């Protein structure tokens, strides 16, 4: 079986692929101090609860990480406990079906590369992938599947946290769809500003990308908050909650076909 690991700035997701389906998916807070041994104790316990024996079943692994300090211990986890050398997206030995076309010397985040591969495989080119993570990112996929750039905006929760830290009198609130635009109390006002503000942000950036590209473009969304911003709106052609894991599997299969 294949262990897919998506390490973001806030959370790290582990998923087990058995060759035909993802058997289980688990999430843990990203922490660069967490050791390989701690990862294994946590992961092996959850695998056992799903009836997935640890010994010998996972033979291969692939990692995508936007938190470089975490990668070392994830590599050790794979080497020590699963006896495999993981592929790491963005490293020279991990190929992509289509190379990104960006300014020379630019390093593209591995999460964006993975989403590009997955989005193209499922929806074809001329595509915008909106990922609601720690940052809200817009990835533009060309007709041949190449990542050709995008947009990075502050994430929803990051914006709420910054507002709370900069204005001590304002409470920290949860993200939710408000009943109306005009709030009648402080919490409702903040929720309205964040929710409708991000609806406008997505609509505006997508509109400008389409104008710049001068062609129809599909829009798909992923990330934990994507379903919330899809409620009653026609922002996205589809919401894909497993997009990143699907992309990791595709990149692994591509490299395996190359003999990596």
Automatic annotation (TrEMBL):
List of residues binding ATP: 6-13, 134
An individual GO BP term: coenzyme A biosynthetic process
One Pfam family, short name: Pan_kinase
Superkingdom classification of source: Bacteria
Signal peptide boundaries: none
Keywords: ATP-binding, Coenzyme A biosynthesis, Cytoplasm, Kinase, Metal-binding, Nucleotide-binding, Potassium, Transferase
Chief localization: cytoplasm
Catalytic residue positions: 111 (proton acceptor)
GO cellular component terms, semicolon-separated: cytoplasm
Names of required cofactors: K(+); NH4(+)
Residues that bind substrate: 109-112, 186
EC number(s) stated in the UniProt entry for this protein: 2.7.1.33
The keyword Secreted appears for this protein: no
Pathway where it operates: Cofactor biosynthesis; coenzyme A biosynthesis; CoA from (R)-pantothenate: step 1/5
Stored InterPro entries: ATPase_NBD (IPR043129), Type_III_PanK (IPR004619)
Protein location: Cytoplasm
Described purpose of this protein according to its UniProt entry: Catalyzes the phosphorylation of pantothenate (Pan), the first step in CoA biosynthesis.
PANTHER family per UniProt: TYPE III PANTOTHENATE KINASE
Matches recorded under NCBIfam families: baf, PRK13318.1-2, PRK13321.1
Protein name stated in the entry: Type III pantothenate kinase
């Amino acid at each position: 079986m294949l262990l897919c690991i998506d390490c973001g700035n806030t959370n790290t997701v582990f998923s087990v692929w058995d060759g035909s389906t993802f058997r289980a998916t688990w999430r843990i807070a990203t922490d660069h101090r967490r050791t390989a041994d701690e990862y294994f104790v946590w992961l092996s316990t959850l695998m056992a609860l799903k009836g997935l024996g640890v010994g010998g079943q996972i033979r291969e692994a692939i990692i995508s990480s936007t938190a470089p300090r975490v990668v070392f211990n994830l590599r050790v986890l794979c080497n020590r406990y699963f006896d495999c050398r993981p592929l790491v997206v963005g490293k020279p030995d991990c190929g992509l079906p289509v190379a990104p076309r960006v300014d020379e010397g630019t390093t593209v985040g591995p999460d964006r590369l993975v989403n590009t591969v997955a989005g193209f495989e499922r929806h074809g080119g001329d595509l915008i992938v909106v990922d609601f993570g720690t940052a809200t990112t817009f990835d533009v996929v060309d007709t041949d599947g190449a990542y050709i750039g995008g947009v990075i905006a502050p994430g929803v929760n990051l914006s709420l946290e910054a507002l709370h830290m900069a204005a001590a009198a304002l409470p920290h609130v949860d993200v939710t769809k408000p009943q109306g635009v005009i709030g009648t109390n402080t919490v409702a006002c903040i929720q309205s500003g964040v929710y409708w503000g991000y609806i406008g942000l997505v609509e505006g950036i997508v509109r400008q990308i389409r104008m710049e590209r001068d062609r129809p473009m599909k829009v798909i969304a992923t990330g934990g908050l994507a379903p919330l911003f899809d409620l009653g709106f026609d922002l996205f052609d589809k919401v894909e909650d497993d997009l990143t894991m699907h992309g990791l599997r595709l990149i692994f299969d591509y490299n395996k076909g190359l003999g990596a």
